[in-house]
Amino acid sequence: MIQYILRRLLLFVPVIIGVSILTFVLMRIVPGDVAAIALGQNATPETLEEFREANGLNRPLPIQYLDWLAGLAHGDFGDSYFHHSAIRDELAHRLPVTGELMIMSVVITLLLGIPAGVIAGVRPNTWSDYVTRTTAVFGLSIPNFWLGTLLILLPAIWFNWTPPFGRVSFFDEPGKNLVQFILPSLAIGISSAAGVMRLVRSSVLEVLRQDYVRTAWSKGLPERTIIWRHVLKNGLIPVATLVGLQVGTLLGGAVIAEQIFALPGMGLFTLQSILGRDYLAVQAIVVLAAVAYAVVNLMVDVVYVWFDPRIRYA
Amino acid sequence: MTEAVGEALEARPVSRLAMLGPLRDLRHHPLGMFGLVVIVLLVAVALFAPLIAPYSPTEQNFAVLDSPSASNLFGTDRLGRDVLSRVIYGTRLSLGIGLTAVFFGIVGGTVVGTVSGFLGGRIDTAIQRLVDVMLAFPQLILLMTITAALGASVRNIVIAISIGIIPGTSRIIRGAVLSERNNQYVEAARVMGASDLRIITRHVLPNVTATIIVIVSILIPAATLLEAALSFLGLGVPPPTPSWGADLGGQAREYFRTAPWMAIFPGAALSLTVLAFNMLGDALRDILDPRLRRGRR
């Protein structure tokens, strides 16, 4: 098992390097001079040149890339041109925000998606099945940025209530923190929940036809036990894969939700960095996102073994 | 067992008649039928936008932030433009970009996937490693970077979304081609002296059609949402082009509290479009995928 994990980790390396090269190239063909954007209107040709020289922007691109890679190996992401600070510090502030957003949206995804899927799958083609399935199609179709907008707008119109914008730490004011995160997490999580619901439904339908479920029925086990112990445990295996694959979608959702709810996280940083031509910041974000994606999907494969002891990794 | 064989046999003619059969079977899928009707209406609205829209979508003809009334059914926006006319013209952009991007993306993905799966060997390995890299990007961030690199215009958004579609599509097509490649009919064609190109276009691709239709049914709503999301973030079509996504983002947001109709109508139009495509897509998948058919009972 350990050997398997190590081998998988080793396989990440070329992918991550590929991702970093691709981002590097993409950011360098972005039109717009980072020096002009960073210095603003007071820039003179001399100060622009000085800025490029100081930040190594005049050197050949392969050298710039290797230099950046060497820094990365030491955990140094370089400095943000836009925020005039070390990107590492910027990330340290922002990662917890997006981390909490991700965790809460996954929790919402599972809390809504799994029970709904079980309800629909256990009694197929009844009214409860139709209602959940139709709701799921709506959930999949509503754009996250419109849902987020409505989640702010409607309470404001109906109850004159607006959520507290910005972000306080969970450890300072847990209540306020949760209120701040619940709406953006809902905005991101609803469509994933709908996806999970459909998968759980078809998975439950599939498992219910298995011989061991029939055996469980004939043993006289109560329905509750059969669903919990036999159906769910096997039916949830594909859900783990789906959630792993949705990490990318959720990260994209974070860009949008952080914009709407003014959460100072990675998503907002991504948007600002791309618009500000902040090469190094974008490179750092994309590499981190790719690492996160790879690690989550490795964790999913490891969790499989716990769900399904028949699976062995050599 | 016999059931499975029966279904496998049944699956063949479906993929042959893939373009016609599913639409006939839609009769038994009321939601899919509903989706199809809505899509036809939306296409009509897009085509005849100048005839349907009461006013120009870009001219600032009216009092700003006027609530819905008889003359402006959906109200006016912060620049005194008619929201209904903007929503109607927005259909053009949304459907146009969604459909064009999916077309190029699916053609690109099919070519790449077929080449990769059919030729195999080193070419396959090289292509698949590149696909790995592209799939490791969060899709929205990849598209944001590409549109930032190319500049915001309708053409560039189509390019960006097509590029975003290619890696995932090519991987699925590759898998389908791999499983077809070793079938006896391919061997038979080869024995008869058919060229690779002929085997691919005349024998392999027709058998992958059902898979391609299923992918398209998932991609169209996804591409529509991506365009709207990019425009929402300010990386999409430049103003004053009417775009549902752009009208929900940017400075307009400051006025939503006083003029909620500015937020409600474009968002509802976008949701309805995506919903219609999802409903039609679900029905098509149900019809085309024998495994789902068994699951439906």
Q: In total, how many domains does the architecture of chain B comprise?
A: 1
Q: Please work out how many helical segments of chain B DSSP would assign.
A: 13
Beta-strand content estimate of chain A? under 5%
* Second rung of CATH, namely the architecture of chain B: Orthogonal Bundle
Detail the poorly predicted runs of chain A: none
Query: Which class best fits the helix and strand makeup of chain B?
Result: mainly alpha
- Envelope shape of chain B: elongated
Question: What letter string, H or E per element, gives the SSE order of chain A?
Answer: HHHHHHHHHHHHHH
Number of continuous helical runs of chain A: 14
SS content category of chain A: mainly alpha
Provide tags for this entry:
heterodimer; A: 314 residues; mainly alpha; B: 297 residues; 13 helices; disordered N terminus
In short:
Chain A is mostly helical and about 325 residues long.
List the helices and strands and how they pair.
The complex is a heterodimer of chains A (314) and B (297).
Chain A: H1 2-29, H2 34-39, H3 45-54, H4 61-73, H5 87-122, H6 127-141, H7 144-159, H8 174-208, H9 211-218, H10 223-235, H11 237-245, H12 247-260, H13 266-275, H14 279-307
Chain B: H1 2-16, H2 21-25, H3 30-47, H4 49-52, H5 83-119, H6 121-136, H7 139-150, H8 154-181, H9 184-191, H10 196-232, H11 244-248, H12 261-288, H13 290-296
Can you characterise this structure?
The complex is a heterodimer of chains A (314) and B (297). Chain A starts with a helix and ends in a 7-residue tail after the last helix. Chain A is built from 14 helices and no strands. Chain A has helices spanning 2-29, 34-39, 45-54, 61-73, 87-122, 127-141, 144-159, 174-208, 211-218, 223-235, 237-245, 247-260, 266-275, 279-307. By secondary structure, chain A is mostly helical. The model of chain A has no long low-confidence stretch (mean pLDDT 84). Chain B has 297 residues and is mainly alpha-helical. The two termini of chain B are 16 Å apart. Mean pLDDT of chain B is 83; it is low at 1-17 and 292-297. The relative contact order of chain B is 0.16. At the A-B interface, helix 1, helix 6, helix 7, helix 8 and helix 12 of A face helix 6, helix 7, helix 10, helix 12 and helix 13 of B.
